[in-house]
Write a structure and sequence with these properties.
The chain is of the alpha/beta class. The chain has 11 helices and 7 strands. The protein has helices at residues 7-17, 19-29, 46-59, 78-87, 98-110, 149-159, 179-188, 197-206, 218-234, 236-239, 245-263, and strands at residues 68-72, 90-95, 117-121, 134-140, 160-173, 210-216, 267-275.
Length: 280
């Protein structure tokens, strides 16, 4: 079957559908989340730190049982389940990996949340939804996988209701960073470029979205990938029973590039929060 996704998105889909990636992320992150965590202590568990990121995002939003929310690049759906448990809202999970989506559906069913969470196979470059149907769109460390991030923003703006909010995190490059410096990271994640705070702010504003706040949390990017490296070492024996040695070696090398880039100030991470204005 010919893929309808862009080449960059299809590359990400193939990667996250692989047995190696599925086994690695479920074991190292704890089976709920696969995004960057926020750390109070360097030895915080990745699960705990990742959940703290979700909690921090939720604090910035007004959520209740009437809220209709879309999570783009939703992974295993851990964010959706947390929001349903805490706030009773309704969440659509849009994600390109059928493997992750099936795990998401199984977990929702097991926890009695299938009525509140709908899992959708698809790409955020072409969101399968009508105009103006969501109160909130969120994303955690997924938009970097798009080869057309402006199109992602167009789609988000389209599906948001007036006064709707767009809140996301993403690993980014520091503005004006020489591409050669980031090449090892770009090669590892099969990208030609990364976004930046300035790029995302300008893109949002060009589409009429208002900037609510931007929170630089770059220190946590370094802390997170250091912690992932430690977790690989501590769980190496178990990982080698479910992942190939080659995959683990490449992952460790890639983690090292994230840490090096972050320490040098070439990579950033944080929260970007935008709002769609009401028509005058």
């Amino acid at each position: 079957m010919t893929s309808t996704y862009s080449d960059v998105v299809e590359t990400a889909r193939t990667y996250y559908n692989s047995d190696n990636a599925d086994s690695f992320y479920s074991l190292v992150w704890g089976g709920e989340d696969i995004h960057i965590g926020t750390y109070q202590k360097q030895d915080d568990s990745i699960f705990e730190a990742s959940r703290r990121t979700v909690q921090e995002l939720a604090k910035l939003l007004s959520l209740d049982s009437h809220t209709k929310l879309l999570d783009i690049g939703s992974g295993y759906g851990g964010t959706a389940r947390y929001l349903v448990k805490e706030y009773g809202c309704h969440v659509d999970c849009l994600n390109l990996s059928e493997t992750q989506n099936q795990r998401n559906r199984d977990l929702n069913q097991a926890e009695g949340m299938a009525d509140n969470i709908t899992v959708i196979d698809g790409s955020f470059e072409s969101i399968p939804a009508k105009d103006g149907v969501y109160d909130i769109v969120i994303s955690q460390d997924a938009i970097l996988h798009s080869g057309n991030r402006i199109q992602v923003f167009r789609e988000v703006e389209r599906v948001l209701k007036p006064s709707g909010e767009f809140l996301f995190t993403d690993p980014m490059e520091q503005g004006n960073c020489p591409k050669s410096v980031l090449q090892p990271v770009l090669d590892r994640i099969h990208l030609d470029s990364m976004g930046s705070f300035d790029f995302y702010i300008k893109t949002a504003e060009s589409l009429g979205l208002e900037t609510v706040q931007v929170v630089d949390l770059s220190d946590h990017l370094v802390a997170h990938y250091r912690r992932v490296g430690q977790e690989i070492d501590s769980k190496l024996e178990a990982l080698l029973t479910v992942c190939s040695k080659e995959y683990i070696e490449k992952m460790k090398m890639g983690i090292g590039h994230w840490v090096t880039g972050g320490e040098a100030g070439h990579l950033t991470w944080g929260i970007l929060h935008f709002k769609k204005p009401c028509p005058v």
